[in-house]
Amino acid sequence: MSSDAALVVLAVVGAVVLAVVVTIVARSSGWSAPLMLVAIGAIVALVPGIPRLTISPDVILYGILPPLLFSAAMRASLIDLRTRRDPIILSSVGLVAFTVLAVGGVSWLIVPGISVAAAFAFGAVVAPTDQVAVEAVTRRAGMPRMLSTVLDGENLLNDATALVALNSAIVAITATITPIEIGVSFLLEVVAGLAAGLLVGFVLGYARGKLGAPVLDTSLSLVTPYLAFLLAQVAHGSGALAVVVAGLFLGYRAPNFQSAQARVAEELNWRTIQFIVENLVFLFIGLTLPSAVMAAGDSGIPIWQLVVIALGLLVAVMLTRLVWGAVVTPLFRYGPARLRRVGWPWVTVVPWTLAGVRGVVTLAAVFLLPAQTPDRAVLQLFAFVIVIGTLLLAMPIPAVLRRAGLVMSAFDQERVEAELLMAEAKAAGLEMVRECADENTDPRVLERLKADAEFVSASVDDGPLPTGESLNVAYAALRIRLFQAERKAVLRARAEGRFQEAAVRKVMHVLDAEETAARVLRHGEV
């Protein structure tokens, strides 16, 4: 291996280890892991002898964005998104257009020498919120289900709107384009993106349904976002929209064509990929920040003026979101019955505004600006400042939610509903067993199944225990300890050589599966 290749491998390994360490520290201290990674990256970049880091925008657009969008879309609820479609459409399309116009107008007024087209291009760059960055900040904030669903839908769909607007603005920088051409281009990109995403989702869903091995299924899953993105690009559609559509389709249809083992493996793989990639993105922002500052300093604009303009643009981005929330909220309070059913109270406006975090999409988009864009380096610095600034502004979200009385988190709501649904499913399964039972069915088997169903029902009917936990959660906690003891016994037997390795592995797989189920019940994740 050449020295350059060895350095690249060492850098990637070091970055992943750093991300793991920072995440552990952040979880124990309550700090923001993304901000810590940005700060560490900036400090490392200032160390003498560290080479200047550059990356092609195509690597971000084609290599990083598709898996992040797909991972988020796979976990999103298509039913919830459809239920909240009105606020999601208003945020992912209306707010993006409003931000392009508002922030573009402010940019044209306060950035020296910027053209109208470049100003609106910058507005498109900072318009989309980022699924990865928002989740990194809000996943432990205790978001109510309604608010988290709207944010998920907005973050998934606004990328396509913003990137289409950016493409139109980039064309306007070097050529002339009419509003009609912009509208037609937007419509064609959306239609082609939807078609590409549905086609890839349907074909791969059918193909994966014919596979019996989780390894083969997961292998196809890993290439799905790239296939959807590239097919949409070839068809002149929105690659981001195609990836989201494919992820939503496959996530919703997964129980129909995947085995339980394949679903568990896929979720773990995509969570791992998302963790690594999203943390590398934040570290990359920090590593490139000093270079962006130096490049902007060469523009001739005084440093104090750059700081004032950057802060002004950050304020414009946040005020645009706040104003939009204040304008559309009355629609959900006093508008038609369909909108009133959304349940969007005034107290959600502030936490929703603070959750407008920018991230990898803005980072990728700003590097797509053509070289002839006036003060391109300055605009890149401003984009970085807005990403970091929105991360900082999102930190008070947990306190704001508590102050607003939005105390029940999405996970709490999910756990209550999950226990109700589990009790219903257990009752249906027990009824089927009773109908199919005959004289050959051992009564002890029926008694065990009946006891399981009655236990789940009791957890729902009796309410929480004095500790605040449900009966099911307390049971899951004790089962986890039980499985750990059983696993130690299996490993001790293996060490003593009393059983063949094949038997040990089978028992370990059973224990792992049962412990995974208990952890999902207790913590809500694998």
TrEMBL record:
Principal subcellular localisation of the protein: membrane
InterPro entries named among the record's database cross-references: Cation/H_exchanger_CPA1, Cation/H_exchanger_TM
Keyword Transmembrane: yes
Domain Cation/H+ exchanger transmembrane: 17-398
Compartments, record wording: Cell membrane
Transmembrane segments: 6-26, 33-53, 59-76, 88-111, 186-207, 227-252, 273-297, 303-332, 344-369, 381-401
Keywords: Cell membrane, Ion transport, Membrane, Sodium, Sodium transport, Transmembrane, Transmembrane helix, Transport
Membrane-topology descriptor: Multi-pass membrane protein
PANTHER family attached to this UniProt entry: SODIUM/HYDROGEN EXCHANGER, SODIUM_HYDROGEN EXCHANGER 7
Name this polypeptide is given: Na+/H+ antiporter
Organism: Gryllotalpicola daejeonensis
